[in-house]
Write a structure and sequence with these properties.
By secondary structure, the protein is mainly beta. It is built from two helices and 17 strands. It folds into two domains: 64 residues; 202 residues, Exo-inulinase, domain 1 (Jelly Rolls, Sandwich). The strands form two sheets. Strands 1, 3, 4, 6, 11, 12, 13, 14, 15 and 17 form a ten-stranded mixed β-sheet that branches. Strands 2-5-16-7-8-9-10 form a seven-stranded antiparallel β-sheet, with no helix packed on it. It is globular and about 50 Å long.
Amino acid sequence: MKRLMMILSAMAAAMLLTFAVVAQQGAQQGPPQGPPPQGGQGGPPRGPGGGGGRGPGIDALVIEDRTGFDSIFDGTTLKNWDGDPQFWRAENGSIIGESSAEKVVKVNTFLIYRGSMPGDFELKVDLKMNSTNTGIQYRSIELPEVGKWVLKGYQADMDFNNQFTGLLYEERGRAFLAPRGQMVHVGPGGKKRVIANLRNPDELKAAIKSNDWYTYHIIARGNRLTHIINGHLFSEAIDDDPAARSMGGLLGFQMHVGPPMKLELRNVYLKNL
C-alpha cells in the first residue's frame, strides 16, 4: 500500500507540473487565433466595395450617380433655356457656347435656365472648355439695366488654365468668397475668414485636365455652398451675410468677355432638396 501511495503521489506531481507549463505558454502566446472577421485583417466588416478611408456601411463614391436628379437638358434643343442665339446652341447631345473673332462677347452673357428658380438643390454637369473663363451661376438675379441675359449672383468658377476652377465667386457682387482648397465663413458686411484648409490647391488643380471633360457638382443647402469636381471637394462657404446672400434664384452658364472660346456642356442634372 505504501508503495502504491508513493506512485500515485508522483503521478499527481507530474500532472501539476504539466498544467503549469501549459498555462505559462498560454499566457505568453495570448488567446487562440481563429480566422479573421469578414472584410479584413481582424477589423470589422467593410461596406460595399471595401477599401481604406470609409467606415462600415459607407458606399464607394460613384461620380456618375444621379439618383433623385432630373435631366434639365434634353440633348437636342434649348427648351427651357434662354440666351443670346449668336453664342448658344444645342448640338450632338451637348449645349454649346461659342464665341469667335466675328462674334465677340462684349459683356459677360449667360444661358439662363427658365424651368425653375432653385433654392436648396444639387446640380451635376459634365463640361469642357478650350479657352479663357466661364462659370455656373446659381441663386442669381437678372440685371436688365446692364444688358439682356446678364446675371448677378453665386458662381462656381472655372477657367482654361485652372487658376480659379472650383472656387466660389459672386458675379457683380462680393467677388471671391471661397478660394480653392478652403472653407470660408462670410459674416455680416462681407467679412470673410478661413475656417478650414481642405486640401492643397495645387493637388486639386491636378485633378482636372485642360481641354478635357470633368464633372462639376454643386450643393446649395441653406447658407452652405459646396463645390465638388471629379469627386474632390474644391471649396465650401457658409454665408452668414444676411444683407447680401441669396437663398434662391436663377441657374445659368456663362460666356465670358475675352478671346474666342468654346464651352461644351452635357448631362445637366438638377435635384431639388
